Amino acid sequence: MGRKWNNIKEKKANKDANTSRIYAKFGVEIYVAAKKGEPDPVSNSALKVVLERAKTYNVPKAIIDRALDKAKGSGDEQYSELRYEGFGPNGAMIIVDALTNNVNRTAPEVRSAFNKNGGNMGVAGSVAYMFDSTAVIGVAGKSEEEVLEILMDADVDARDIVQEDESVIVYAEPDQFHAVQEAFKGAGIEDFTVAELTMLPQTFVTLPNAEAEAQFDKLIDALEDLEDVQQVYHNVEFADEQ
Which GO terms describe its biological process (predicted)? Predict the structure, then answer.
């Protein structure tokens, strides 16, 4: 496990640093989560997860408040949660999660992004079985031993605990997301370097050369640039992540 989560997040953060698209996507995700239940993270666990994620990506409070106010008010947009699966070069596997208010728009756009960038869409279930839904939570300033002690004291299980750069990353079952966070908060830790519910691949592939890596990056960029796409997961490990 592990697989250098901080490298993955850093790559995404650097890419998103010069655009507001990540804020727009979080705005939609917060709105949808808030509309599923009460627009209050205390009673709405799905909203709590999204807000914790937004915090680690430094989403401005104004963006968060605007989405919550829309959910509390007269906002009546209906969004569908969709998942697409596909393939890239060298057997790469890709999962695309989307939130859309126009299902007739999203599928053709995702298919086009695959086809124009060296990939192809697969059928439902063709890729997802090779990924595990995982809670990923990171903290700074603690050792692996200290983190293990905190979790043991709180009687919380983890799949793995790994030192990655300046953080200790906890990998756990999705239903342990809040339990892990509460264990840390009980130990006086309020800030997290990462707080995600994600899809982690069971196996990784490497691409044969820099040209293939560039082509794959272009494919991922094209998918992530789509308005309706919230998350893109894949099983490619780049040379600088090994």
Answer: regulation of DNA-templated transcription
